[in-house]
# Entry
Amino acid sequence: MKSWGEALGLGAGAQFARVGRLRRALLLLAAAACMAAAVLYWRQQNDQGGHRPLHNLYAGIEPQWTWICRNDRCERLPASESSTLQSLPTCNMLCASTQLWPQPTGPVSLATAAVPVNVDGFSLKIVTSPSRDVSTHLTDAFALFKEDLRLLERNGDVGRVAVGNPRELIVRVAINGSGDPRMLLSTDESYKLAVRPMGNKLVADISAHSFCGARHGFETLSQLVWMDPYAGSLLTLEAATVQDAPKFQYRGLLLDTARNYFPVNEIIRTIDAMAACKLNTFHWHASDSQSFPIKFNSAPQLAQHGAYGQGAIYTPEDVKTIVRRARLRGIRVLIEVDAPAHVGRAWAWGPHAGLGHLAHCIEVEPWSAYCGEPPCGQLNPKNPHVYDLLERVYAEIIQLTGVDDLFHLGGDEVSERCWAQHFNDSDPMDLWLEFTRRALQSLERANGGKIPELTLLWSSRLTRSPYIERLDNKKLGVQIWGSSRWPESRAVLDAGFRSIISHVDAWYLDCGFGSWRDSSDGHCGPYRSWQQVYEHRPWAEESLAMPSIGTNDAGWHIDGGAACQWTEQLGPGGLDARVWPRTTALAERLWSDRAEGATADVYLRLDTQRSRLVAKGVRAAPLWPRWCSHNPHACL
# Structure
């Protein structure tokens, strides 16, 4: 049999030469392989430390831009002009700003080095818990926390480029306080978060006095994790300490689902966005004269006669789904069935059921003489069946939501003319006061014989002198919606009522889109920008002369505030951009209430928080052109 050299027609000398060259080539290949293995081992060992924004971490990536931290701010450079390749999110997180939203009220210390992590490496350990219910809520809330991070991973093409072995992260939670997981007016929402390396792992310790406080700790921890788009990996700060607590105990968003219906998934997404900003009250304006979309088993006729149709009804199961999601996000659901005004066809079935007229002036014309917008209608204050129905509805609201320390009766924009027409022997204002008294009695019976700690009414003529003096400020609070300069704002506070601020000239999100009835500017004037929302501090204005938040020497009680999204000109698909990031700005005002206005740091952190919301699937409006996100300090 011939050798391979002979087969190729080579002579003996040529065969030996070829064999020598082959051996040398094999030796060189072996040496190169050993060197490559050594380099890979060295990189792996070094990648166990802090994140190094060097181009060799991003092999195969050819981005157009890089950002470097210079003079405590991130500056954009063409990638070809720098030996450092670093993404904007990583630069933002490792440069000077805290990048937390809302800004914590206590001390914060953040490391300037980051390490890779992945969601599968996150685990929960409940160190102490005051009840089984709290432990269950912690476990389920942690699952939502991981779902949020998985969204980041899916959007970021994780694993495309290796940046070192991901660290495991153990989240240890200790709750020493309330065994009730609900958001209550008495809930202590403070928390402490400490992240540190422990061997080749990270440990995050969260301590709180309530489930809601611990959940806020989860939220802050999630903000210390980000997707690096160049590396295709989640990164987190390797060490951090945060001590935090809100300034106001009521931080809300109102959504009107009566003018236009919003699907359950949009409400769920809104609640998720609220939680990302540490808001704690979803005020669900569930009914109005236009429609009554919630089906209550205690009074199914209201939705049967008042909803737009079968596809625009929230069933009790829908409400439970929304409430459950909100509970796990540290949010209470406050359902408002407006009364005695703002009612319509939902209440027109009384005569056929043998209950008499439950409401008057339903769809009366000309509507402008009886109400602020069509259609009109308000309850019959002298029909006892009205109060029986309200008691049943109130009881079901409390049962569905689990909220029994806080309630909203509605109570605004009553037409005195309507009642004067039907009850010419009575003063309409006396009827309004009597209705409020009897509605409170219905609520007390519905709540097991106990008046909630805070029962809210909208500010109205009833909350002005000489009528406000006839209301009980021990039982009632007022949600002040009028202009901050209106005398009624001051009158409510001076009368000692607990108050929720929703000033139309700052925190009404439906303003600025013109009137839906004509070509005028609309009922509430110009658009409220996020800067206006953020900088509104009515408790600090000289005209109010309020020295501090909470209760002052004059007896003022401000429990918090809420943005209001009325929906005459808003429907499904448009909600996110209308609400966010303006309500994000409100969230920091009510959580931190720093005296500073919309500074450069606020712009930068809000833009980062807006990006977090977008990553969660929230279609939040941009703050500015994307160029400004890339070059923020050039736009300020």
Notes: The CA atoms of residues 281 and 332 lie 5 Å apart. The longest strand covers residues 114-128.
